[in-house]
Structures are given as structure tokens and as C-alpha cells.
Design a protein that fits this description.
Rossmann fold; Elongation Factor Tu (Ef-tu), domain 3; 7 helices; 22 strands; binds adenosine-5'-triphosphate; binds magnesium ion
Length: 423
Amino acid sequence: MAATAKTAEHTLEKETELRFEAQAEHVKLRLLSGTAEIFGTELVKDRDYTFVLTHVAVFTWSGARVSLSGSFVGSYTAKETPMLSYLNTHAAIDRRRQQAAVENQRGPRVMIVGPPNVGKSTLAKMLASYAARTGRRPLYIDLDVGEGAAAIPGAFTAVSIDRPVDVESGFLSFNPVCYHYGDVEIGKSFRHFCAVVDKLAQIAQQRANKDAVIRSSGHIINTCDMNKEAMMYVHKTFEADIIVVIDNERLHNELSEATKEATVVKLFKSGGVVPRDQAARDQARIGQVKRYYYGAPGGDLKLNPYSFPVSFEHVKIYRVGAPQVPAACLPTGTDPHAHETQIVPVQPSPDLLHKCLTVSPATENWAAEGGSLIDSQGIGFVSIQNVDMATRQFTILAPAPYPLPSRPCILMLSGQSFSDAGS
Ligand SMILES: Nc1ncnc2c1ncn2[C@@H]1O[C@H](COP(=O)(O)OP(=O)(O)OP(=O)(O)O)[C@@H](O)[C@H]1O
Ligand SMILES: [Mg+2]
């Protein structure tokens, strides 16, 4: 849809939602009067919020007047939204938190599942912001590896929610704990997935053990398109006791039968959720990597990445997972899934151009010291902007200045090919 620059004021009646799409040009939104929120975070009056390449919904419980300016497309006001059921879900979760706080117990661990593109990430974000607005501090576990909302796609993250999610920069300003997964889809390597989920659950448990408010606030676990085996693995590992299923009756029934330890709740998808094709997902992923380095176009999170050369010798690159050998070719008794978690050195080559790497905290001698890169945390993510085979140097884009730590780097295998064209 073509966009032309314009300014428009909208008067929103109570419990309605203004939806619009911001394309490549900046769109500015301003709350002129009343109260309104974006995906659970309240807007401040008379402040400009800037959006690029995203779909936005401005919801008001009590009525509001807002102005939109820039090249926005497809704006309309929706009267039917599932917001009341989402708020009620938050209220029910919060009653459990309240009880947990009184009894100094662990709070509810809520997991959000459903088919692709039903608003899982949006609901998870909303529940996190509502929790923060109620004074809770849940841990937000982001397993939506295709989105990588707190880091870059290909990473799993855990974030301590101590304030509502930022309207413009999302989770990026939250100082997440990151783990390398390396792919934007779950399924190619279930073992690797399980190893990283185990690690995140341990970290979450440690955080909960240390802090009573975090403990009683529980978890909000966002997932992505995953099969039932993976869902059940997450449910068991995090001991999730509430599973919210969006928009899938059958999955709701199957999960209700599969678990007696969790309350399985069904919620409807919002009519505003936008279906995205592969091209739109790819564009969103590149946008997320760009925000990781530069911050969001609006808002307070302004970042400046650093670009510098590093010699091939300085960067030891590995990948998780070796090519699969047909079962018939394997010696008898060999584990057919062993290749999924095999660590393979990657040689410098032009194929690495624009690839992202997770910088691991492991030492250079990790293998000799009995360490592993399978469940490696990420201390940062760098992107290869140039490969010079003649001088044997990479040009690296990094969130921190030179030098690149002498740590093993793990290759992101798909979805984050990033060519830096400046901010
Ligand atoms: N009420 C709404 N109005 C307008 N846009 C919305 C609304 N709710 C969600 N969206 C947009 O729809 C898109 C898909 O939503 P979301 O990412 O939450 O879905 P998802 O189920 O998490 O997708 P995935 O399966 O890829 O993880 C996002 O761009 C989001 O901003
Ligand atoms: Mg999602």
C-alpha cells in the first residue's frame, strides 16, 4: 500500500483501538488528551513516539485523542478487540502473584503458545507491562527465536521486568541474559533447543531464589512456532503452571489432556494481528539487528556501534551442528542425533559476509578445559561487514569498541544477514 506524508487527528472512544502501519519513513504518534496505551505500556501525553517498519495499535480504556503524522498506511479504528479478556487474564495471573507474595512462594509461570502470527509476542509483552504497572517483577523468558526481541534473532533471552516495556525500543534496553541458538526456527535441532532451555530455566531459578519479589512475580514465557514436544519440554522445564493458547481450539484441547500440572487457558486472537509472509519476516529480522546496534529510531535508547578490522587469527568461529549423515551410513550404535550438538570450526571465507556471530564468554581453550559451546551465553553479537581474503581480515560491527574479546564466536546460521548501511 502506498503511503503519503500526512497528519491526522483521531478521537478514540473508550475501549477502541487505532491501528496503523509505519513503513520505512518515520511515523510520529502523540497523545493529545485522555489516556491510551500501546501493547500494555501507557503513553505520556504530549510526547512524540516514533515508529518505523512496524504495526502499531493504540488502545484506550477511557477515550483519547491522538495525532499521527508521517507516512503511515492502513490506519483504522477497531471497536472489537480482545483487550478485556487480555486484561482479565492479567488480573487472574496477578491474583496468584499476590497470594505467592503473601506466602513467600514462587509465583505463576505463564507460557504463551499458539500457531504462527496470532499475537503471542504482543500478548506476552502486554502481560509483562501490565505486571510492571502493578508493581510486579516477573522474569520474561523469550523463546521467540525468530524475533529475538531483547537481542537479535537466533538468541534466547531472559529479562527482568522492572518497568513497562518501552513503546519504541521494546525489550532492547532491558539488559537481557542471552543464549545462542543460532537459528530462527526451532526444529532443526531439538537437542540444542533443550540444552539452551535447560540453561535459561536454571538462570531463571537462580534469579527467583535470590529475590522474593522476582520469585513471587513468576515468569512470562513467550514462545514461537514449535511442535507439541517442544512446548511440553518448555512447560516441564520451567514448571509452567498457566498455559495460554491463542487461537487454536485443538491445541487447547491437546494441551489440556497432556498436562494436569497447568491450567490451560484459551484466548482469541486480535483482529489487528498482521499476517506476515517470509519477506516481511526477513525485513523484521534485519530491522531487529539494526535496532540492536543503533537503538530504535525514536525513544531514549541511542546506540552507536563500532566498526573495526580484526585478523582471521583473532576470531575463532564455530557453529553448532554438523551436516546430518544418513542413518544407514552411521556405524551401528551411533547416536543419530549427535550431529545436532556437534561443535564444528568454521574457516574464514567470503560466505561469512554479513553473518552475525555470538561472542561467547568461554575461554579460547574451552575444549581443553572441558567446557562446551552448546549452551553458551552470549556476551554480545557482532556482524561481519567485510571479509578480506588478501589481508586475512574481517571488518566487524560490534556494540562495544575495539578490541574484540579473544573469545570463541558462534555463527548464527540463518535469518540475521545484516549489511550495515548506517543508522
Ligand atoms: N492489535 C493489533 N493491531 C495492530 N497490529 C498488531 C496488533 N496485535 C499485534 N499486531 C502486530 O501483528 C504482528 C504479529 O504479532 P506478533 O508478533 O505478536 O505475533 P506472534 O504470534 O508472536 O508471531 P510469531 O508466530 O511470528 O511469533 C506484529 O507486527 C504486531 O505488532
Ligand atoms: Mg512472536
